[in-house]
Specification:
about 210 residues
Length: about 210
């Protein structure tokens, strides 16, 4: 495909899925041998660096992020990568292995009713968050910004009274409680049928809300 479209400048990057895989060195070596393309494995700091650069560019006229102290979180399928940015400078980088797909797979391996599984996931996340709380003890932020895959585009279907601004979809704790209640009352198929949310997003929507 690269030859077909006459692409000459190629950069291959990998994030949490490859970073956390036990055989990532074998995978990266195989890709190189089979394709001739070296894979650059991005750290948590690398990921947040690019996100910060994007936000600074995208919001430069409307939200001066480099004048803020913000907690920026990037949510993926394999991890939640967080960074404290103070006026454009990174203070803390940390990655938690609690992505949406990780929680979905964990839920599939738990026994018990749906309510019991949900409670177990909440307890697991609470333990994961304790380390983060200690790291951020006493910190004060102007904003907490979550970068997700595509979930925010579906939120208005479940929370119709909440309207996204041109830049952000602002959620209060009460909104998240309402979102979780709506998801807990339905199966993933029910979420798809009732709200028109694609099946792949509906299957991990609760993990997103919980995180």
């Amino acid at each position: 495909k690269l030859k077909e479209y006459d692409i000459t400048q190629v950069r291959v990057v990998a994030t949490s899925a490859v970073r956390e895989a036990r055989n990532n060195d074998m995978f990266v070596d195989t890709v190189l041998r089979q394709t001739g393309l070296p894979v650059e494995l991005l750290t948590v700091g690398d990921v947040v660096y690019y996100i910060d650069a994007y936000l600074h560019h995208k919001l430069r006229k409307t939200y001066p992020i480099h004048a803020k102290k913000a907690l920026i979180a990037e949510l993926g399928t394999g991890s939640l990568d967080l960074s404290v940015m103070d006026k454009g400078f990174t203070q803390i980088n940390v990655g938690l292995s609690v992505g949406t797909l990780v929680l979905k797979e964990m839920a599939a391996n738990l026994e018990g009713s749906r309510a019991e599984v949900n409670e177990a996931l909440a307890e697991y996340l609470e333990k994961e968050a304790q380390h983060l709380r200690r790291m951020l003890a006493g910190a004060d932020f102007d904003d907490v910004i979550l970068i997700d895959e595509n979930y925010s585009a579906h939120l208005r279907a479940i929370l119709p009274r909440k309207q996204a601004t041109t830049l952000f979809y602002q959620l209060e704790p009460a909104d998240v409680d309402e979102l979780l209640a709506a998801l807990d009352a339905r199966t993933a198929d029910g979420v798809t049928r009732e709200f028109g949310i694609p099946a792949e997003a509906a299957e991990t929507m609760r993990s997103y809300a919980l995180l």
